[in-house]
Design goal:
One of its GO terms (cellular component) is endoplasmic reticulum. Its EC number is 2.3.1.50. Keywords: Acyltransferase, Lipid metabolism, Pyridoxal phosphate, Sphingolipid metabolism, Transferase. InterPro entries: Aminotransferase_I/II_large, AON_synthase_class-II, PyrdxlP-dep_Trfase, PyrdxlP-dep_Trfase_major, PyrdxlP-dep_Trfase_small. With 581 residues, the protein is an alpha/beta fold. It has 23 helices and 17 strands. The protein folds into three domains: 56 residues, no CATH class; 200 residues, Aspartate Aminotransferase, domain 1 (Alpha-Beta Complex); 241 residues, Aspartate Aminotransferase, domain 2 (3-Layer(aba) Sandwich). The strands form four sheets. A seven-stranded mixed sheet has the order 4-10-9-8-7-5-6, sandwiched between helices. The longest helix is centred in the N-terminal third of the chain and has 21 residues. About 2% of the residues have low confidence.
Length: 581
């Protein structure tokens, strides 16, 4: 029995030994592979430069040569991937054309148009654009297709309210700057785009507007989009006036913040919205950034914001105020410092103020003023400041000179002579129009303080012609997001604009006075668009006699137009006339 057990034990031992010999462990296999790999690496000594590679492998991975082998395979795979063709074409699918066939295909090819072709309903708007020859000032040489010859006209279609485009001091400053600095800065401000004239303008601007610091932008339209996007992100909240300009609309869309809209210049509605949002916002953690966004002088309507009430509400509900003073700087207040000076509100109550140099300052570009930390934040995070070329040096010099012209020429009461003259002529023209236009054709919709007087077709007259209150959709107002579809072409808007253009043409033909009208692109607007307005832009260099002629001519033309276009049937006749304009 014992002998039998010994035999079984011996057989089991031999079986285990044979199994071990036939099935080596993974550790043994990797050890054998490593030894062979290290042996093969010795051949690198025979290759030029191979000694360096061998030394690197042995010193870095001497305890794990399998890893070196794995990395070598990855390196070979990467080289094969990047050096091989991205797309292996099937040669059987490639067609070979003769030169004759290629020429024939080229003759048949018609490129797609870069822009949409204008139809007869839209092309009239392009043909009626006046062409100004030479200098642009209070008096201009203008040509239109209807006149056929150049005439000298009084220019009430320019936003150069203070007529500083014709100032010798501003022109001389620009010329001297061009002779030393050239016409461009050739770089963004944070690199080599900032020159001494930019620093001086920032100092002049902050001193003029009673703020800590200022920052300059090369383009005024993009200023709002860059400033708002630098401070507001997804999840932040803006309570916005529904009458804001296109630049502010696009800026809010870019920021992706949450939007709540209050009725245009309606402080009761603003108060109601803020009170409804207050209990919801107070419970949310972390605290969301909150802004009230409005214009000082509204470009679409010509009225001014109720700044004291807005400041009261923003302090009550703990909001910051963003104010766009594009049209109000150089216009409102005794020295043109804008809406805060007009109402006597400290500039410190406004967190962020933006504006433009392209209007009263006779230059170009935009700016933002406020406290030092807010300005410094923009210098490193505002896209139009970091990545765009800085303001042209001569524009900066012109703006500094314009500020000097406004502030140094004062009367005995300490008011700016230029600003006082603008206020006087604005008030005179406004009162004369209000007293004269009583035939229910035109009505004034702008504020008495606005140098851009907005004349709209009267409400009752619009009802007779079945013209809507506004154009476009309300989707942006309802949910705060851009409309999925752009506003389409509106024949009613087109006809209403044409009526105003006929008035503009008649004023130019009869009295050589150039006016303009609002020109909103429906397919670019996110908000409902107000009806077109006839715009009269007051200029300090225009005489009172010219203003009287304008008022008398507008009275005569409005009487004629109201009798010519009385109902919808007359509007249909006008539609046919528009096709041959």
């Amino acid at each position: 029995m014992a002998s039998q057990e010994n035999v079984q034990a011996t057989m089991s031992t031999k079986l285990v030994t044979a199994t071990t010999t036939l099935q080596p462990s993974f550790e043994q296999f990797s050890s054998i592979l490593a030894d062979k790999f290290v042996g093969y690496l010795d051949y690198l000594n025979n290759i030029p430069g191979g000694t360096i590679v061998l030394r690197y492998i042995k010193s870095s991975y001497k305890n794990d040569p399998v890893r070196s082998l794995f990395e070598l395979c990855l390196f070979i795979l990467a080289c094969n991937y990047f050096l091989s063709s991205k797309k292996k074409e099937n040669r059987s699918d490639i067609l070979d054309f003769s030169e004759k066939e290629i020429d024939e295909l080229c003759r048949q090819w018609e490129p797609a148009p870069l822009v949409e072709k204008l139809g007869p309903q839209k092309s009239w708007d392009l043909r009626c654009t006046p062409e100004i020859k030479g200098h642009n000032g209070a008096m201009v040489q203008v040509t239109t297709p209807h006149i056929g010859e150049r005439v000298k006209a009084v220019n009430l279609a320019s936003s150069d309210f203070l007529n500083l485009n014709e100032s010798e001091a501003v022109s001389s400053a620009a010329k001297s700057c061009i002779s030393t600095c050239g016409v461009g800065s050739c770089g963004p401000p944070n690199f080599y785009g900032t020159q001494d004239v930019h620093v001086r303008l920032e100092e002049d601007l902050s001193e003029y507007l009673d703020t800590e610091q200022a920052i300059l932008y090369g383009q005024d339209f993009t200023t709002a989009g860059s400033v708002i996007a630098a401070f507001l992100k997804r999840g932040d909240l803006c309570v916005v006036d529904s009458g804001i300009s296109l630049a502010l609309q696009k800026a809010l869309v870019v920021s992706r913040c949450d939007l709540e809209w209050y009725d245009h210049n309606d402080m009761d509605h603003l108060d109601r919205i803020l009170s409804e949002l207050s209990p919801i916002l107070d419970k949310q953690k972390p605290i969301r950034r909150r802004f009230i966004v409005t214009e000082a002088l509204f470009s679409n309507y010509g009225d001014i914001a109720d700044l004291p009430k807005i400041v009261e509400l923003k302090n009550k509900y703990k909001y910051r105020l963003f104010l766009d003073e594009t049209l109000s700087i150089g216009v409102l207040g005794d020295t043109g410092k804008g809406l805060p000076e007009y109402y006597g509100v400290p500039r410190s109550e406004i967190a962020i103020t933006i504006g433009s140099f392209a209007l009263s300052f006779a230059a170009s570009g935009g700016f933002c003023v406020g406290v030092t930390p807010m300005i410094h934040h923009q210098r490193i995070s505002s896209l139009a400041y970091v990545f765009s070329a800085s303001l042209a040096p001569f524009s900066a010099k012109s703006a500094s000179s314009a500020i000097k012209e406004i502030t140094t020429k004062t009367n005995s009461q300490g008011k700016s002579v230029l600003i006082s003259s603008l206020h006087e002529k604005t008030s005179y023209l406004y009162n004369q129009l209000k007293k004269t236009l009583t035939n229910r054709f035109f009505s004034i919709v702008s504020s008495p303080e606005s140098p851009i007087i907005h004349l709209s077709l009267d409400k009752e007259y619009r009802k007779r012609l079945n013209l809507p209150i506004f154009y476009g959709n309300t989707e942006f107002l309802l949910n705060g997001k851009p409309a999925r579809k752009s506003n389409g072409f509106s024949q009613r808007y087109n006809l209403e604009s044409y009526i105003l253009q006929k008035v503009i043409d008649e004023v130019l033909i009869r009295e050589n006075i150039l006016l303009t009208r609002s020109k909103n692109a429906l397919d670019h607007e996110n908000l409902p668009v107000a009806n077109p307005h006839l715009l009269i832009m007051v200029n300090v260099a225009v005489s009172f006699e010219a203003l009287d002629k304008l008022v008398k001519t507008l009275e005569d033309i409005s009487h004629e137009m109201s009798h010519k276009i009385r109902n919808q049937e007359d509007l249909q006749i006008l539609e046919q006339e528009l096709l041959t304009y």
